[in-house]
Amino acid sequence: MRFSSYASLFIFLQVLFQRFSDITAIFRHTYVEIIPTEGLSVPAYQRHILTCKASYLGEAPDVEWFRDNNINLEGDPRFGIEVSFNQYETVVISRLTFYNPLPMDSGMYQCSMVSSAVGTAEVPVKFWTAPVLTPVATHITVTSGNQHTLQCQVQGGFEGRLLWLKDNHYIGAEGSFDIDGDRIPDVRITPQSRTLSIINAKATDAGVYTCRFRYNYGNQWKSLASTIYVTAGVELSSDSYILWQGNQATPLNVKCTGTGYPLPSVSWSFGETKKGLRTGSWSGDISIYDYQISAVHMQSTMTIARMPGFFNITKFYCKGENSISVKSNTIMVVNVGKRRPTLGPTYYPLPTVALHLVAGGPLHLVEGGPDSACKQAPVLSNVQRARTGLADQACRILPG
Predict the structure, then answer these.
(1) How far apart are CA 167 and CA 155, in angstroms?
(2) Residues 194-197: contacts with CB within 8 Å, 24+ apart?
(3) Per residue in 357-400, pLDDT tens?
(4) What is the H or E stretch that residue 119 is in?
(5) Torsion angle, CA of 62/64/70/74, rounded to 10 degrees?
(6) Which of 365, 234, 349 is nearest to 307 (CA)?
(7) What is the pTM of this model?
(8) DSSP three-state, residue 146
(9) 172 in the Ramachandran plot: left (φ > 0), alpha (ψ -120 to 50) or beta?
(10) Among 138, 140, 141, which Cα is nearest to 153's?
């Protein structure tokens, strides 16, 4: 009895396993798919092929092609349909050929099993008359020291070559390139991903980048381009201090260069109050000249025709500004050749100088220029003005 029970259980398990195998085989051999599975995005007026493979319960079924679920392509002379089978005749292979497709032939294409077989596969098909070039981002702001990537996508399936330019100057199509001439690569171009990577970004890497796609269509070379604006905050370059020979009465030139994109503006100010300076300030003794070096460099030069020769240290400020950021630099001017007034005062070689006059009390020239002397100048008599010449000079150079 026990043996018989084991035998019955064994037979039952065998049958169950066979049933499971049969069910698995059915599901394994019932399918329908179109290759390429992502469909087609290709130029119009050129030959293209879709392939459908189908099997139903391990047998090769009949299949039909449709567009947008209702247009049967059988018999249409603009399409060709060829049918074949695999080695064991368990899979049908149907090839749909587009001989000379038009843009209007774009749509969803279906391969459907018919008769007793059930199953449909579909893919999108798009026919293009020209490629479409699209940057992933049209505006990018770079930050110093980081890597940033520009990318342009090409739709339409056209074969061609993507080229990169910066500020209308050609960079290249593949590899690493030094743009600023310092023998260090600034960008890396990868054609497979259609990207340009800015390596270790700095303000000089900002500007207008262009990706240009060149392709051959209809035996003609054509191209299209797209623009990417790369912006950067302001970086300033100037001397921290200037040694000036005041006893030679020579003009003082102060330079400041702003780097960034959009191109920064550069302005000047003076003293602790940061009073703004422009051409014509200080009774016409100041002239300011701005020169655009490149698309990202603006240099400003301030020339002071006459400076008072009796100060020790004074400060000027240059400010660079664009829509991304604002930055300011301090420039110290150190008088290393001070002129002594011809009459009266005692000279103290310190950052703060006191001039003791015969009348009117002491005049203090604080760091930043002879503003105090100018403010106290009205209390001096004409005789004192004539004797010292100091207050007149101070008020002419630093009015108000």
Answers:
(1) 25
(2) 194/151, 194/152, 194/153, 194/154, 194/162, 195/149, 195/150, 195/151, 196/149, 196/150, 196/151, 196/164, 196/171, 197/147, 197/148, 197/149, 197/150
(3) 333 333 333 333 444 334 443 433 433 433 343 333 433 333 33
(4) none
(5) -130
(6) 365
(7) 0.66
(8) coil
(9) left
(10) 138
